[in-house]
Amino acid sequence: DDETPLLEELGIDPGQIVRRTFAMLNPLSTRAEDAGDDDLAGPLLFAFALGSLHLMRGRVHFGYILGWSALATFAMQWLLNQLAAGGDGTRIELYRCGSIIGYCMLPMCLLAAAALVLPTGSVTTAIIAAVLVSWCTSKATAQFLRSLPNAQGKRLIVAYPTFTLYTFYALLSTY
């Protein structure tokens, strides 16, 4: 009877997931506390939600979503640590990269939900996809740069790979 709850034992904080989710839903917010503590429960939840929305359209993309997320996490960690090298030794952890990439995937879930009702390849779908990819890119880039003070001034170098990643997710969702 005196055992700790399972979620607490696993290190999953539902309140934190909700806070970070609502922080992601505000595209104009740039507060430092929006990033919060890192976790992978929320990102895995969003990856599963994105895959489930694709499954509703008859496409099984779980492997693509998880594979691209894993590759992007490793690549972004390497890139950011190369950009910040030579300073005070500040490095970004793999765990933090995965958390940022996963939480910033939330607008792609919105796109996948919209793609369920919008016609494939329409101008409306393309405009919505472009706006949501920009939203993902902006939030992820801001969080990555906030994590590494030595990488300030290198926004475009960080934004390009994040833009490419979320464009891949958008293409999966719209076609």
TrEMBL record:
Keywords: Membrane, Transmembrane, Transmembrane helix. It comes from the Eukaryota. It is found in: Golgi apparatus membrane; Membrane. Residues 26-170 form the Yip1 domain. Its main location: Golgi. It is a multi-pass membrane protein. Pfam families: Yip1 (PF04893). Belongs to the YIP1 family. This is Protein YIP.
